[in-house]
Write a structure and sequence with these properties.
Elements lengths: L1 H7 L2 H6 L3 E10 L2 E6 L9 E3 L2 H14 L9 E7 L4 E7 L2 E7 L11 H6 L10 E8 L4 E2 L5 E2 L9 E10 L2 E9 L4 E8 H10 L3 H10 L1
Parallel strand pairs: 1-10
Antiparallel strand pairs: 1-2, 1-3, 4-5, 5-6, 7-12, 8-9, 10-11, 11-12
Amino acid sequence: FWKFTDMIGASEDIKKAGFVTKRGGRVHWDGQVERLAFRDFGYDRPGLHVDRDEFDSILVHHAQRLGARLFENVTVRKVDFGEERQSVRYDTADGPGQISVRYVIDASGQGGLLARQLGTRVTNPDFRFMAFWGYFENSRYYDYDGVSHPHSMIQDIPCVTTQVSLTEGEHIGWAWHIPLRKSTSVGCVLLRETVVKLKQNFDNWEDRFEHLVGN
């Protein structure tokens, strides 16, 4: 991503934020451990574990300094396409609004705003997963060589992204362990069928999460 932040001039702001650097990744899958180092692919600048709210804020404010207009607390409802200009309709707390633009980029993710409007939305049955996660304090972390360190060393000894396979009945999912500056993100990605079974056996998300992480 450094190539793109260099292009827009945001790299220095990102460096100043002091996000956690990482050397690569470790994957613990079905009893086997694989390692990946960014340097093996010719990268000479670090990967980062970013706090997304602050990272996104850096990019948004940089865009504003370059002249971008920011609309917050807005829900886009529809895009009316024209030959040269497009009209974006949206709702705010004060009522509906509309803006004319040259281009539209749909970044609504799973919401699929334009795909739904144009009737082109297609769901891939092989990607029907569900993710849930939590944040923890004082979690230890792995470095590239598999040595465990206390979270207090996170700015001194680079970490890696750790992924671990999960087996729940006949279904396999996976979990992540991502150290951040003040906490650690731990999450699970499961097939929807597995989530349905967890809901049958546990009353709340906290119990379901602790069951998976504990195993």
